[in-house]
Amino acid sequence: MAEPTKGEFPVTMADGRKITLAFDVNAFIDIGDQLGMGVPDVIKALGDKDNPPGLKFQRAVMWGGLQKHHPEMTIRDAGEILVEASEAMQKSIDAAMPKGDEEAGDDTDEGPQKPRRGTGTKP
After folding, report:
1. How far apart are the C-alpha atoms of 18 and 20, rounded to whole Å?
2. pLDDT tens digit string along 94-117?
């Protein structure tokens, strides 16, 4: 069963096929292996809104997201699915990725702020 909070999303394709995208640890490792990149580099590229990754990268991401529930899918299958399901892929990735401090609103100028530890300097 798909769990959106864990990066799993069901998608119904135009031809009626039902697929489930899942972006878990194994998906990110598979994506990195497919692209010859480390997982941190994959995650960094996914979060770079100023320099979005190209189609080859996106296709590999789709393929990685298919592997948990559809291991029979090839990289070429992923390319075909990407055309229809790119929005679902992005939603699934967003749900799977941990939110940083900026997105969580922890660095606002409103209200008292907690002192940061471990900065190496004294105020």
Report:
1. 7
2. 777 766 544 444 444 444 444 455
